[in-house]
Amino acid sequence: MQASDEVVVEATGNAMAVVRVLSPFVARVIIANPLQVKAIAYAHVKTDKIDAGVLANLYAAGFLPEVWTPDADTEQLRRLVARRNQVVKHRTRIKNEVHAILHAHLIPRCPHVDLFNRRGREWLARQPLPCDETAAIERHVRELDRLGEDLVLLDREVAQAILGNPAAERLITITGVNVVVAAGLVAAIGDIRRFASPQKLVSYLGLNPRVRQSGLGLAQHGRISKVGRSHARAMLVEAAWAAAKAAGPLRAFFIRIRARRGHQVAAVAVARKLTVLCWHLLAKQSDYLWARPALVANKKRSLELQAGRPAKKGNQRGSAYAYNVKALRTQEMVIAEQAERAYERFVSQWRPRGPGRGVRERLKRQARMIRRPGEASSQCLALRHEVARAPTNYHAGRKFACPPHP
Q1: What's the pLDDT tens digit per position in 168-216?
Q2: pLDDT digit string (tens) for 37-67?
Q3: What is the DSSP string of 325-362?
Q4: What is the number of alpha carbons within 13 Å of residue 167 lying toward its C-beta?
Q5: Which of these, 67, 184, 377, lies nearest to 369 by C-alpha position?
Q6: Are the beta carbons of 290 and 248 closer than 8 angstroms?
Q7: Closest to 282 in 3D by CA, of 384, 360, 377, 198
Q8: Which of 80, 142, 346, 360 has a Cα at 20 to 30 A from 157?
Q9: What's the CA gap between 22 and 169, in Å, rounded?
Q10: CA distance 248 to 298
Q11: What is the per-residue pLDDT across 220-238, written as a single tens digit (0 to 9) for each?
């Protein structure tokens, strides 16, 4: 192995460790995406020697899909976010097991808000259950308490990792995005400069719709692709539900989509809107236009306290204290509601813009060229159908004469 060599490895669980070991001795180490290397994934004869040869040939030809290698801080933040996600999933699984035990013995629903708080646990202890089921519930509750302690420590480590990060502070200004979501997005995105446009980031997170088109036929749009980082996509959907409950343009957008497609599709649409918004904020290094200052200050102060900063009392109250003042909080809500109504008025004035004269003439020329004696007229009919529905297709593609909404 020489210093001028370039090494290609597949993306595995220990790929980053291999990159760290080999980087000082070679010119470059490339991580290949195995999901996009179809020659290896669908090969009938699959051995390490053959796969290595295929990777070398693809890289020499310039057709190897590479995986972005994060820096040390981003890689550490990704590990912390992944560990926190595992703990949260484990807690949810234990809670579901307790609910399953109660359901199996026809125990009615808990009358309290949370089954696992103090009042809920007192109610749970009074339920008539067999001895083995009671012992199982006690074990689950003890495991839940232990995981709760681990979750507190992980939250502190995550908060310390993103404290003072300008990207996380900009994302927090968005309504519905809290500290956990901001940390997950910063860890997933990394360097925003590797995404040339918002659509690139949307595709990276798997929120872009699938498109199937053959020849001159009409394009068929399906569900979202769901490729990429699933954890970041799930957090964006959760942030979308939170943004849909708060006054502002995002709630107006959610209501408009929900009236036509339902609340599930509307939540995914808001998540995609949040992704585009995150790209603009990070790429242009600006805060959210409709941010609520008192709420943002409260989020930042919560981040500081979660990271272990000392509490402020007495005359040391900062800007986050304004969120506790009801008059200021109400004033911010009034401004957010005004922005929501302004968005609704702006959307009501949208008009679909049909294709230009050049587009229609091109489609007509193609239809006349295909329409020849003795040839099948299916392509011609498809072109005519596309010409007739051209304004509708542009309307579905959201190409309006007015500029895009904020």
Answers
A1: 999 999 989 999 999 999 999 999 999 999 999 999 999 998 888 777 7
A2: 766 666 667 788 888 888 888 888 888 888 8
A3: -HHHHHHHHHHHHHHHHHHHHHHHT--BPPPPHHHHHH
A4: 21
A5: 377
A6: yes
A7: 198
A8: 142
A9: 35
A10: 18
A11: 778 898 888 889 999 999 9
